[in-house]
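Form 7-S
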Amino acid sequence: MNTSLILACVWAVIANVLAMTPSRDNHWTRAYALIAVGIPLVGYVTYENGPWIGLLVLAAGMSVLRWPVIYLTRWLRRIR
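Output:
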């Protein structure tokens, strides 16, 4: 396993631990931080391992952060 995949696994573990802790703002602050770290991490995984593994990591990240993705798709539909 190379460095990018190890970092992606660490990101997933941290995301799950953060999801289990209580939050007053429904975890949105944590979600923004995870997104800010996760986007470059997906790029790094894609660079080192190719597009298919990058898409798998992107799908895993989207499943962890599903509500921001749902709100983004609703917002994009409203604009169109």
